[in-house]
Design brief:
By secondary structure, this protein is an alpha/beta fold. The chain has 20 helices and eleven strands. The protein is 47% helix and 10% strand. Strand 8, helix 15 and strand 9 form a beta-alpha-beta unit. It is globular and about 75 Å long. It starts with 11 loop residues before the first helix and ends with a helix.
């Protein structure tokens, strides 16, 4: 059953929100806090170890009531049920959207259960040294070869959970930058390195180009026969992986009902399981699964992903905000923002709706950010005194992993101070030095988690995944295809052929022909 295809601007709630916005758009949050000392308690949500304070938003009770009415009118509840029960809501590709099934521990698909079992056995054999290379030496280094979700997801999780890492050195090769990759290969020992080639189709240009180059390097150092021992595949294309030289027992399955940018929860997470151990990997899945059930079963007014998605709609479509900043106060989450950039913008960067008509309203905001406190000494000037309205998500952990309480307290103090400065500015203080003036009234959410554990990280990632889903449903777009990346792939094939042939007389656009000519002759 497909998702409902309702133009959001035709709903009663949208029209009511438009009128409401005109009435409150100049309202100051500073005044709202003065009038309501209990505001922070009322506009906050809590689930397990996660607490969200969304009181520092330009909203009233009426705003939230209208937004929730809008979600109901857009049939969000029905959409959530359709997604989690496996209906083919990815209509343009004819697929279900079931990454949630990868972390389900109650109604487990048999193929998922079998894949988990194999991942556990394989990763434990690598970690314990029972899986050895072609000379009998233990594996010390794992290199994940993939791109997009086959790279960003595992890389982000492994970096975020660095505290839980074991002795294995897990590295990533994604870009087809030959210079960088050649330098990386120089640092590897072929006798103790295992390569995981991650590609659903086993045809992805960048991944296969890198995999073939690495295989050539490996064969030169070792032998063709040793490839079967040192190369593993995660793919849906068994035959292509076998043709590459990977044995069947070293091929882990992928399924067409899982999109690449949501795939870290399954076999794409093999490198995660090796880096932190399968038990920790399973805790990651458990945390995400808990958020899945909470999202499915919780009333909209108390539902974290729904509330965050609705606030994003409020700013994107009514305040005309074009970006959202995400600022984690943990260096471990330094790659969390790049991961979110793909998840959000590849999902909701669409201009055609589910009626196959061009939209007349904004869809995905640009997502950007960096870690605090580093970001405070970089782009926060723009957040505080710039001319653009930029909603911010602050992410903070209450407890230090290593017990560095004083450092953690200082991180927290900075995080809270920045959110207060965005809210309050120099309100009520007055100054004749106008360049020191902070207008405040700038929105933010604060996401406070108890500790950076595999379970809590899983919950956090799933929270943002569901926010993306909510946004896509309410914008009436297809969030789970990515046709926007295909044109560039096709044109790259033509350009590559022209460069290889050193011939631009073929059917190339004049702009590309000019650049290729310059590239070849420079």
């Amino acid at each position: 059953m497909p998702l409902a295809a309702i133009n959001p601007t035709t709903t009663k709630a949208w029209k009511a929100l438009k009128a409401h916005f005109e009435a409150v758009k100049q309202q100051q949050m500073q005044h709202l806090f003065e009038q309501d000392p209990e505001r922070s308690e009322r506009f906050s949500l809590e689930f397990e170890d996660l607490y969200i304070d969304y009181s520092k938003n330009r909203i009233t009770n009426t705003t939230m009531d209208l937004l929730i009415e809008f979600a109901s009118e857009m049939k969000l509840n029905e959409a959530i049920q359709l997604q989690q029960q496996g209906d083919g809501i990815n209509e343009t590709e004819g697929r279900a959207v079931l990454h949630t099934a990868l972390r389900d521990f109650h109604n487990v698909k048999p193929e998922v259960s079998e894949a988990r079992k194999r991942m556990k056995e394989f990763s434990e054999a690598i970690i314990q040294g029972n899986y050895t290379g072609y000379t009998g030496k233990k594996i010390k280094t794992i290199v994940n070869i993939g791109i997009g979700g086959s790279d960003l997801g595992p890389k982000m999780v492994i970096e975020a959970l660095g505290h839980y890492r074991n002795h294995l050195d897990v590295q990533f090769i994604a870009n087809i930058d030959g210079d960088f990759n050649a330098e990386k290969l120089e640092q590897l020992d072929p006798e103790t390195t295992l390569f995981i080639v991650v590609s659903k189709s086993f045809t992805t240009q960048e991944t296969l180009t890198n995999a073939k180059a690495i295989k050539e390097w490996f064969v030169e150092k070792a032998s063709e026969e040793a490839v079967a021992t040192h190369f593993v595949a995660v793919t849906a294309n068994l035959e292509r992986a076998k043709d590459f030289g990977i044995r069947v027992t070293s091929i882990f399955p992928m399924w067409d009902w899982v999109g690449g940018r949501f795939s870290l929860w399954g076999t794409v997470g093999l490198s995660i399981s090796c880096a932190i151990g399968y038990a920790n990997f399973e805790q990651l899945l458990q945390g995400a699964n808990a958020m899945d059930k909470y999202f499915k079963d919780t009333e909209f007014s108390e539902n974290m992903p729904v509330v965050l998605g609705l606030l994003s709609i409020w700013y994107t479509n009514f305040f005309k905000a074009e970006t959202e900043a995400v600022v984690p106060y943990s260096q471990y989450l330094s790659t969390f923002v790049p991961y979110l950039q793909q998840a959000v913008m590849e999902s909701n960067g669409k201009h055609v709706d589910r009626n196959h008509e061009s939209v007349t309203y904004a869809t995905s905001p640009v997502v950007w950010g960096s870690t605090g406190t580093n970001a405070q000494h970089a782009f926060f000037q723009l957040l505080h005194q710039g001319t653009r309205l930029i909603p911010v998500d602050f992410i903070l952990f209450s407890q230090s992993l290593f017990g560095n309480g004083s450092h953690q307290d200082l991180l927290a103090a900075n995080c809270f101070a920045q959110s207060e400065a965005l809210l309050q500015g120099t309100y009520g203080k007055g100054t004749t030095e106008t360049y020191k003036d902070f207008e405040g009234n700038r929105p933010s959410n604060t996401l406070l988690l108890k500790k950076l554990t595999p379970y809590n990280l899983g919950s956090l990632i799933a929270l943002y995944e569901h926010k993306i889903f909510v946004q896509g449903v309410l914008w009436n777009i297809y969030s789970f295809d990515q046709w926007g990346v295909e044109l560039g792939k096709q044109l790259a094939t033509n350009s590559a052929a022209a460069i290889k042939a050193k011939d631009v007389s073929t059917d190339l656009h004049s702009a590309s022909a000019s650049l290729i000519r310059k590239y070849l002759n420079q």
